[in-house]
Structure formats: C-alpha cells, structure tokens
Request: fold
Amino acid sequence: MTKTIIDPNAKATSKDGIYGLPFKESEAQVVYIPVPWDVTTSYQAGTSKGPAAILGASEQIDFFDLDFVDAYQAGLFMKKESAKIKKLNTEGRLLAKKIIDADDETMKKNKILQKNLVKVNQICNELNLEIYKETKTLLDKNKISVVVGGDHATPFGAIKAYAEKYPQLGILHFDAHSDTRVAYMGFENSHASIMHNVMEKISGVSKLVQVGIRDFCEQEFVYTRDNKKIEVYFDQSLARRKMSGESFLKIAKEIIAHLPEHIYISFDIDGLDPRFCPNTGTPVPGGLDYQEVMLIINELVLSGKKLVGFDLVEVSPNPKDKGNEWDANVGMRLLYKMTSASLATMGHIKKRK
Ligand SMILES: [Mn+2]
Reply:
C-alpha cells in the first residue's frame, strides 16, 4: 500500500496523473491503459481522443462517494498512450477509411482494397496482442487493469487475459449495440464484432449479459437468442417493464443473478441515453439513465460477487467544440465508480454502510 498523502477535500489538479493523483504505476492497485483507437469506426470518428479527454476531465472529480470509501486510497494510475498503438491506429484508419467508403461491388473487384482489408485485420490482431500482453503483465502483479478506449474493438485482448486468470468469467456488457456481428464490412476485429469474438474465441468466458441493447441486425438477434450463454436485456423490454410498473431494483437484481462469481464489465458509453454521450461514435435514442447504471453496479457489489475488471469505451470529445468536456466528464465519473466498485468487491477498499 502506498504512503502517498492526499487531501480528499482539496480540488485535484491536472499537473499530476489521472484524477489529479500523484501515484506511480508501482504504487497503484488500478492501472488504466489508454487505447487511442478508432480504426474501424464507421460513423463518427474521434473516439481515439477519448482517453486523453477522460484524463483531462478527471481533475473535476470529487473523491467523496456515498457508496464507497475513497477509491484513490488504493492508488490509481493511467499509463502514457503507447506510440506503437498510435502509429498502428493511424495506419489502420487510413486503410480502413477507403474500405468503409467503398461499396460492395468495388470491394469485389478492387484487389488493392482487398489487400488493404487483410492488412487492417492484421493491424487489429496486433493491437489485440499488445493489449493482451499489457493486461496479463498487470494481472500477474495482482493489479486491476483497465482498458480506456478507443472504440469497442480495444478490450478484446484484455478480456482474454482476464478470462485466463478467472476461468468461467462472466461479462456484463452495457451498450446500445449488440456487437455480435460475425464481421463488419470484412473487418474481423471491428467494434461491431467484439462480443461475437469474445464468445467464439475466448473459452474462459462462461456468460454474457447484455444491457441496454437497441441497435442490431437480424443475424445478431438470432445469434444472441440461440446462444445459451447469452442473456439480452433489450432497451425496449427494460422500458416496457418499467412503464408497466415493475421496479428497476428488481430488474437490476435479476441482471446480476444471471452472472457468475467473477464479473468483468465492458462498458460502451453509448449504452447510456445519448444525453450523457452526445459525441459518441454511434449514438442511438433510448438507453439507460445514469442512476440506473449506478443501481446495477451497486447491486453487483451487494451480491457478494467480484467485479474483477472492467473497461470503458467509445467516449469521444466533441470534434467541433474542443473545450466541451461533457462526454469525458460523464466518462471519468463512470470510470471512478466502476473503479470503486471493483476495489470494494476485491477487498481493497470498503463499501460505506
Ligand atoms: Mn459497443
């Protein structure tokens, strides 16, 4: 445990690390890996700037939390963005952009574009390997490793490393999108395929519970319906159950009850109502209220199950208004709450009574 002294009532300052904290990586129980990545983003690019925006907004945090004793006491640290990953993203994005802009006919005929597609898939595999290795190194040191995206393709390697450490891992997936496409525009590792890849390629994952889903194709609907390991809480069903007078607390307990002992949260910010993330890559109307998410996380902690790890993806600053921190402000608070919940369930900090 670190000896760093912090005044929890003082305002954090950005001259230190994330949340204005002065920890070194070696002192930190939680290490955030920023992944500036938006290679296959199909609608609005910009999520590669998410980690920097979250870091910038994080000094606005108030450490006091009604549910948890101050998470910062366990030590929180964000790594520097990797130059290698930045370079891969720039290369991959350039190649992918032309493929995204081409129609199916052009793709079938154009040999250069076909070659580029192979290259993009290789670049994405390289990212997965990098994140896997970084996460595994941190997990071997018994730290909590957190991918901060970037688009939703970024945490695949992290989930693989977590599933090796915690076999029978359950994934609690907040998202507007199902993300279970077999491949998207030929991209094998796109943000739209992450959960399909997790379920098909990571044998240590025993369960996937999706919450807030409201944008998906028929293939995804059939895939998730027919897979016994997957439970889907569609946004429409959640809304109708609430409008019929069911308590959301009951629904939250039911969601957690589907999950095994060890839980990993993969949080796509667009699972929330777009008023909390207006600049995310692919916003969809509807979605979860911030406090509904807080309730689900609280129920997870009360259940006695362990939140072993998590990620936060698709947070994007407003490209037209650089001073606008709103999406990142929501993101950094959500990140702090998941950090607190994880630390509490892993016995590093206490839950308030
Ligand atoms: Mn997603």
The longest strand covers residues 205-213. The pocket of manganese (II) ion is lined by residues 152, 175, 177, 179, 191, 268 (CB under 6 Å). The mean pLDDT is 94.
